[in-house]
Amino acid sequence: MHEQVVVGLDFGSSRIKAAAYDRHGMLVAASSAETPVESLPEGDNFLVLDMLEAASSVIRDLGCAPGTIAGLGASSMGEVGTVLGEDGLADLAFPSWYDRRGGEIVERLESAWGADDLRTSTGNHLRVASTVAKLGHLALSSELPRGLFLGLCGALAWQLTGRGWQEAGLAITSGVYDDARHRYLEHVWETAGLRGVELPPVAESGHHEPAATALARELGLADGAPVVIAGHDHPVASVGAGVRPGEVSDSMGTGEAIIAVMEPQFAADQRHRAAALAADRYVSFEVWPTTGESLVVWERMRPGLAMRAFVEGAGLDRAVLDAEAPPESTPTVLDEAMSLELENGGAGGLPPTPASWAELIDFYVVLANRGQEIVREISGATGATVLTGGGLRSSRWRHAKAVRGRAPMAVSTVEETVTRGCAAMAGVAAGWWDSAESMPGAERVPLGDDAAADMESAVRRMAP
């Protein structure tokens, strides 16, 4: 491939993906690889150096000729990373975000500094799925090298540019970043046993550094091509799906995040933010990747994990379950405790039948409706709810969204939203577009009176 492209890279929990787009916003090449994971009795570990090597491999597999990558953006799941020391990047096996390791660190920090104060100052990001919890847990059992912490995107950016930094949205997922004051809570970080690990400088949204290493040239980046840390995967996916401020994004997948940019009057009201955090433990605040505006996120749901546990327990194929599940169901057996058990890999107590599959899906659709109401009230968003994510591949799940979801709704026809969001931001840095939102190609299908038919039309229009 000899045409100029911008590349988006997605460090996902199950796959690492790369995609190249031309100036017209057309997808011209894509590649992916399984995320290197070490499965142990205590939980899954992400193998950081193997993940970085896989990222290089999938970029290489795009087939870009030397000097044709005009810009590259990267996004990741958030907390995972490593330490840049005198010997380079440490080969860490990083605990997965979806297990309970690190809970003891959270308890220690809340005891030392106050749970309510930490919830407010970190936007509810001091939790088990945070960098400080996972890295602190590692420090209990092994000696971490001294050096600079870099998230996955930061480590890749360092490999391509020779410079280390972080983006605000991913800094927030560290669990020790006060976004209102734009500073780290270094005393909290040190209390977690991480005194010898420095926190990376935080740059503004869209910040980029020039590609300048042998690896960058070998992968096809032009000399000086901008490398962008796009941000946390769910917000970046919303950008890629074409979601705009004023709308609500519902990303159906392993974790189903409901997000919306906050109206300025709500974002500036610290009492409003504090009250929202106190009222619902699943509410958190981040930033919109392209502008740095305040973002409200509701993250109660991990339906993909629950569905995986059910499928494995039932011994049935997802396609068979989708085909044989009744089109309508009223959740009667499944409750909050059972769903959480499934999300944590347990049996959940559901009979292994297609009817249970239907109930499981409908439970999460109803739960998502509640999440959308919460997010709209906190953010002031009044626009459509835009559906995205891999969950749209499930015929039964998308049917439930169509018939049980709350209007107004639309379906983004962008399939690989994270890579596209990254590429959009890289394109802005390269001077291709004035804004990420102006990258061509983010189409959607509104769901009207015949929402089920409109939903199927949207799925047919998605790129294969």
pLDDT averaged over residues: 95
Query: Uncertain spans, ≥5 residues at pLDDT below 50?
Result: none
As a percent range, the share of strand residues is 15-25%
CA-atom Rg in angstroms: 21 Å
Q: State the separation between the terminal residues, measured CA to CA.
A: 20 Å
Strand order, main sheet: write it out.
20-21-19-18-22-23-24
Helix content range: 25-40%
Number of strands: 24
Question: What overall geometry do the principal axes of the alpha carbons give?
Answer: globular
- For this structure, the quaternary state is single chain
Based on secondary structure, the structural category is alpha/beta
| Count of individual helical segments | 18
Description of the structure:
The protein contains 18 helices and 24 strands. The relative contact order is 0.13. It is globular. The protein is 39% helix and 23% strand. The two termini are 20 Å apart. Strand 4 and strand 5 form a beta hairpin. With 464 residues, it is an alpha/beta fold.
Provide keyphrases for this structure.
464 residues, alpha/beta, seven-stranded mixed sheet, six-stranded mixed sheet, 24 strands
Quick structural gist:
With 464 residues, the chain is of the alpha/beta class. It contains 18 helices and 24 strands.
SSE map:
Layout: E1 5-11, E2 15-21, E3 27-34, E4 37-40, E5 43-47, H1 48-60, E6 69-76, E7 81-85, E8 88-89, E9 93-95, H2 103-113, H3 115-122, H4 131-141, E10 147-151, H5 152-161, E11 166-167, H6 168-172, E12 177-178, E13 183-184, H7 186-191, E14 197-198, E15 202-203, E16 208-210, H8 214-219, E17 226-232, H9 233-241, E18 248-251, E19 256-261, H10 264-267, H11 270-279, E20 283-287, E21 294-301, H12 303-314, H13 318-324, H14 336-343, H15 354-379, E22 385-388, H16 395-404, E23 409-412, H17 417-429, E24 444-447, H18 451-461
Parallel strand pairs: 1-6, 6-17, 10-14, 11-15, 18-22, 22-23
Antiparallel strand pairs: 1-2, 2-3, 4-5, 5-9, 7-8, 7-10, 12-13, 16-17, 18-19, 19-21, 20-21, 23-24
Helix pairs in contact: 2-3, 2-4, 9-17, 12-14, 12-15, 13-15, 15-16, 16-18
